[in-house]
Amino acid sequence: MTFPSVRRAARALAAVAALTAGLAAGTATAGTAHAADDPRIEQYRQALAALKPLTRQPVCDQVPEPERWEHAGTPDQGSADVLISAHRGANTLAPENTLKSYEYAFAYGVDLVEVDVQQTRDGRFVALHDSTVDRTTDGTGDIADLTFDEVRALNAADYAPWKGGAYEPAQIASLEEILALAKRVGGGLELDIKGSVTEEGKVAELVGKYGLIEESIFNSADPRIFAAEPGARLIYNRDTWEPGFLINEIGAVFKVFGSRLDEYTPESVAAAHDACAVVMPHAYDAGPDQEVAQFQHARAIGADGVQTNQPALIVAAAGEAVDSALDVRHEGPTGGVCLVNAGNGLGFPGKTVRLAKNGRSADLVTGYDGCADVPGVNWRGASVSFAGDGAVHASRTRLAG
């Protein structure tokens, strides 16, 4: 990085810090001023002006329609290929932020896995949501006070509903492990950079090392990300106060809009799209039973995708089911069968697979890695089938005779 870039990054960081402080002080008066007179607008513009010279984004060829930022009329059509980000991985199928949760998410073909990035005392990056290890592990204390080896020695499945189950013990995933997985399957990371991280530029450098800058997005406004990787995409977490013209200006720097679905309207989505930005709010804020409805509402107002706790449900709702394969395994007394993504080999747990032979049948439910043991030698030569569901296509094979 050149010396002028360092100075620009320092000015941008100062502007962002001032902006954050200003917002914290001004939250109580939100909505009291006319949008054009809101002092926060100028604060935002100053911060954006400091960040913009650091970024390198494709030229936006969208023709702005400012009138639609006030009255959108027919909502925009979101991306034809729905953008799906799995929040902390497939966190209903395996412990959150563990490598297994990310494997299960990528089995469903999601575009991104959301990773809560923390930094250990010795400068390594790991996946953990909380600032302490207390809630999800058998350890205690701030993660910033622990070394990488100390963090990796903890059991990341030491909480309900995982304690005592098939996933215990689990290990807190390193950022390198998740990047390697994403690289292998052709996915990306949504990096939610937490307060323990003091070297955000190094996070971006690490993502760049794995060749995943284009596929990934950063939930951060730290200019050191742009200084390290000018092509990085940052997420802007929408509030409800920003007028359409400011959303459009923000979209020139922050190419992804996130946060709560109830903070979006067809007008705000149109303003973001006119800056060639994408919109992918949460689908999970209204609770697990409402995720599909939230996804459908997001798409109805023009969103390009969502962040979800239940990728299988959203993949099904989006009509983007993935191909499956049944792999026969010969380990163990009677062998087993695994239901996996046909393209990347990652397993689907919790699916029903049927054995059939000579008029008899038996149903197996897949578990860890999408595998199930075959119950006894009398099923040799049996047909094995998965009927398919909304998220995973059907498949069939036969056990060895």
TrEMBL record:
Signal peptide bounds: 1-30
GO molecular function terms attached to this record: phosphoric diester hydrolase activity
Record key words, sorted: Signal
All residue ranges annotated as the GP-PDE domain in the record: 82-318
Domain of life: Bacteria
UniProt GO BP: lipid metabolic process
PANTHER family, sorted: GLYCEROPHOSPHODIESTER PHOSPHODIESTERASE, GLYCEROPHOSPHORYL DIESTER PHOSPHODIESTERASE
Protein name: GP-PDE domain-containing protein
Source organism per UniProt: Nonomuraea aridisoli
